[in-house]
Amino acid sequence: MRLSGWQKLGIALSILWGIAAAIHTHRADVHRAEVFSKFAYKVCSDSKMLAKEADFSRCDREKANHIATWMKDSNENVALAALVPIPFGWLAGFILLYFWRIQVAGFRVAVPWSGLSRPKKGFAIFCFAAAAAGLLFASMTVMNLYVDTQVPVALSPFLDVIKTGDDLVHVSGTWTRQGASEGSAMGEPLQTSTIDCNRTENRCTEAKASLAGNVLTSEVVEHDVQSWTSEAIVLKDTFPCAEEIYTIDLNTKAVSGAGHRINSDTSLCMLSPAAAGETDWGYRLENGFPVYWDLRKKARPWPLRVIQSLFGN
Fold it and tell me: What domains does the chain contain, in order, with CATH numbers?
């Protein structure tokens, strides 16, 4: 069978798409893995340097684990990106060509509906349905790109409480906040923290990175150690208008905190934005990925919410 010019062009474009999509997807996966692993390594290494520790082997292991996690499904992503769109591209090309012929010749000439057999009518209906599905997919892609601008980075899918001997404890995760005032369900959700505690120095140092809009900030916090037993570590932070207590439970591997207002009658604390209807609040260190995913769901435009709700998302 001799191929037409359009078919030859379609084959060439299919081959180019497969190669380009595979290369782009693989590079994107590698880039995301490297960016996140370097970020996690920096947080870990900064906390090590602040704790005056020379052994960075745990940071290297964390970096390797992050890369392995992000690259785990890369081959499947490459195959899907390279191969799955090709048949849909051919179908879209056929539909567009048919629509063009309809515009040129008129609907009744291009699609003699009354003279079509049932299989041909079914195929015509399928083509129209496929075109509608293509438009729906394209609109979902654009809306997801918008969501990416609102929640531009993912958070670590790890929550760790690691005890080394009797004197060293390493904690990492994402803080979530529960408060009484409106909009206080989470505090700095695009955030990740690493806490390193050294019993001999009676010190816990937290390296914290947060993303506010498009601005990435870092912070180092020295917590006051109130008590350290085989069961738990209790930390305390005191501010001009608030006091917070954190507990690292070494048995359940849970990290939580609670805060309350102090000095409420002073002029400084009366002007504090946090004073509006909130006298106490709580914290919990969580796996960051559910926090990230919840933020993506909230950032979706309502049409995308409706569409994805049909699939249980």
Answer: 5-150 (no CATH), 160-296 (2.40.128)
Rounded to whole angstroms, how far apart are CA atoms 162 and 170?
5
Listed in sequence order, the residues at least 6 apart from 300 whose beta carbon sits closer than 8 Å to its beta carbon are 143, 147, 308
pLDDT tens-digit map of 251-284: 999 999 999 888 888 877 776 655 456 788 889 9
pLDDT of 32-73, one tens digit each? 788 777 777 777 777 777 667 777 788 888 888 878 887 888
Asked if pLDDT for residue 176 goes beyond 80, the answer is yes
